[in-house]
Each structure stands twice: as C-alpha cells, then as structure tokens.
Amino acid sequence: MKTIRLLTLTIVLVAPLAGLHATDAPQEQPNILFILADDLGWGDLRCYGNSFIDTPVLDSLAKDGVRLTAHYSPSPLCAPARAGYLTGRFNHRTGAVDVPSNRGLDRIDLSERTFGDYFHHAGYATALIGKWHNGLYCRDYLPHRRGFDLFFGFPNGGQDYWKWNLLRNDDAVPHDGRYLTDALNEEAIRFIRGREGRPFALFLAHHAPHSPLQAPEALVKKYRERLGEDASEALAVTYAMIEAMDTGLGRVFQTLQDDGQWETTIIVFTSDNGPMLGRDPQLGSQKRFNGVFSGQKQDVLEGGIRVPALVAWPGRIQAGQVLDTPVHGCDWLPTLFGLTGAAPPAGAKPFDSTDLMPLLFGSPTPALTQRALSFQRNRYAPVPHCNSAIRAGRWKLYWPGNDSSLKKDTARDNPSYLRGIVQPHWEMPLDRQLDAPTTAPQPAPRLYDLDADPAEQFDLAAAHPEIVRSLAQRHDAWFGRIFTEWVQSRARILHHDRAYWQGRTPPDPAALFQDFWQWKSASKNAAPKTADPRKVFRGFWSDEDTKR
pTM of the full predicted structure? Predict the structure, then answer.
C-alpha cells in the first residue's frame, strides 16, 4: 500500500461533470447501476483472494474495470452505512446512527436529499430494488417518497428468502415461490427494459448474504462437498447465497448487453459493511476468510469497514486496474451524479466526499491521497471515542469503546425486526425513549501502521504520541460537527413522528408482537402468558413515552 501524506478531510459539492477531461465529456447521460450487497466482506469474492467461492460474474466485472483494495463503507453497520451511500454525507448528519427501526434510529431525515432525489432531478428513471432499512414504519420515509420512481423491496432490516413479503411502492407483493435474490434481479431487468427511453439510475440493494441464512439446495450441496465435513453449514449456505447473487447479476449484465446499454452504463458493486463472523443460532459458525484483517461487522477495525468495490464503464474506464487509494462510500453519489451534467436539486446539502472520476480515469488525485477518513459507531446516541477511528495515510488511530456503549437492548428492539422478516409491512409510531449517551471512561486509543500492519496487531501509540495527538484532534473536531447535526436531525425525526400520529390510533404492541417478544431476555419473574410486555420491556408507546 502506498504511503499517503496526512492532511485534513476534503468536503466538496461536486460540480457537473467534475473530474472529466474536456475531451472525455460523454455525449449523453450514462445509465447508473449501483449494486450494494449486505454483510459481504472483503474476502467474499474470488477476485479478492477467496479460492473456495465461485463468483465468475463479479470477477469478470473486476477485469473489465477497477478493483479497489482500500474501499471503506461509511459505517460498519447496515442502516448508517446505507445512509452514507444514499446521501453522500456522513450518516450521523442524516439521523441514521443505528439499526433499531422501532426507535427511528435508521431513518434518513426528510431534509436530506437521496440518490433517488438527485437522479430524478436530472431526468433519470429511478428505482430502489431490494433492501431499504432507512425508515419504515411511516410511509413518508419509504423510497418512492424519497425520489425513487419505483420501490420494489422491503423496508425492514431483514427478510425471509423464500417466504418474503415485498412492496411495489404502496402495494404489497406476497411471495410467489421464487428465491428472493432472483426476484430482485428479475425486477431489475424489468425496470431496465421498461424505462421508456430515459437513462436509468438503479440502486440495487441485495439482501445476500445477510441472515436468515437460506439458499437453493443445489448450491448448498456444492459448497458442503467443496468445503468438507469440518466446515459449518453456515459457511456452505453463505457461499451459496453469494454465488446465487453473482449468477443473477450475470443475467442483469446480459440484459444490458443485449439491449445495447453495456457501454453506456457505469456499474459500481460494493457492500454495506464487513462480514458477520459470529455464530448463527441455527447453522453454526460464520467465521470465514476476510483477508488479513481484524474485526467484522459492527467494528471500525479494517475487517468491519474495508469492503470490496468494483467499478466498470466499458470503453470509458481502463480495464484491469487495481487501485489501493483509500476511497470512502460517501464518494459514490457525487461521483456518479457529476456525470449527469445537472445542477444539484433544491435543498441539496454539501457532500462529505470527493469526486472519484479522476482516480478512475487515471489522473492525479491529491484530493483523495491527502485526506483523512473518520468513522464512529456505537448503539443509540453517538458516544465520542467509542468504536471510532481515523485513517490518514498509513496511520490509523482506533478507539475500541467499552461494552456499555456497544450493547444492544435486543429484548426491546428485536420484536419489530423479527416480525418484519415474516410479516407484511405495517406502520406504527416510534418508541421514542433513548437513554443519554454514556459518560463512562472509554479505553485509550491504539495506533496502527496500516502499511506495515494491515491486520492491526501492533499498537504503536506509545512510540508516536505526537501522531496520536494530531489524529485525535482532527477526529474530535469531525465528531463535534457531525454530533451537532445528529441532534438536530433526531429532533426533526421525532417531531415528524409526533405530528404523523396525532389523532391516529396506534396498534396495540402487545398484540402486534405477540409471537415475537424476546422473553429469554426478560426477568425470570415475567411469565410470557400472563405478564404485560409493556411493563416487562421498557417503552413501547406508554402514555409517558408518546408525550416525549
């Protein structure tokens, strides 16, 4: 990995066609195909060094374009990562800092402009197909009210792959026997072919390989045999899920070629965060190859935030490139929107990102090679120096965070998520209670030299106190700015929810979640058949809560 000098973070509102040479300006607006996998790690593709898995379609995409080896998701967790990709802004600013949808912590504040808003404004046919998870229990937050002409997918954080329940805008679409991944790819093909001559901007958000771990049996059998009897069933199913997605994307790409759109479409493939490497409750260990990196989903260690990224634009971007320049997930929206030649839509806010087209076209990229990238994620209200990091050049300063800042209240937050996996979409008011951020002391930061130690095994903080101070100051200044905006976004989200439900009768949570309460996490004195879950599990729209 090349050494990169320290410098401050660059924040740019990209001008039309930024990064293109005058002779390179396209004759027409290109189609945009942005593909986001779910929990797909750095080592989950063959082109990233995994010899056990077959991903020929994505491997071919890498050969046709660019493979990035230092691409960072905006966050190591689903909803906040997606908020960064969808807005080109740090997720804290948008309001999305965690995954509990019941509390609205996944919502993108309505004052933000999304991928759909930008491209719809530029005259594109727009669609979000697949997983949303950025606001669901209120229709105002769904994709087809956020700039997307079409939403075909699910708003929840998870979905059954066989007995799925999807939405086509406001209309329920019950499962029809197809595997979820196939249904999403087939809808993508339908959208591409039905756009009536306009350029398209498609955000294809696959669920694979996120749990529940389910895949076609023929593929699972293939990986059971390939991996051997010592491998867990979870690993065989996970690899089968990834190959099924790869195969389906091949059909999408073939459609572009058959329709003469291949060379007028720029394709980006990446992931929302690193892999889940813990134990699946049904199928065993999910531990698998993830390069040399430490950490996993939820961690701001490299294994949680460094994810695959492939970019191809046949005839425009030179094929066969492998680039180690650090790239941030917030960079994609301004990069792709810049190709439209359009001015930003009304109400657009400054991007927290830099145009990548000079890098992809092979030009000098000082704005990329001379910036710092900061990350922070814990549960609920953001806490400074908790699961935080800043990378600048070869150096990365990392605060691990304490357990109290990272623990999820699963008994309270999981019932709605679990119900959403198997039940059609519904609306309900938010559980607005949110504890104040912890003031407990956080563990000291660790300093890593990523050039020499990409696995983050050797703490050099004691040897380089001046670098620790410099990076900590820059990270703290960043956190102070984004935390202030999170407080403002959070207030607007809660205000909207109160107004939306004024005069309406909310559903009864005791009935709504009857089969989904997490009684194993409750007090032993709480009997599931007789206890009032609203008294056992805090919140859930008590009279006091609805006044907040």
Answer: 0.94
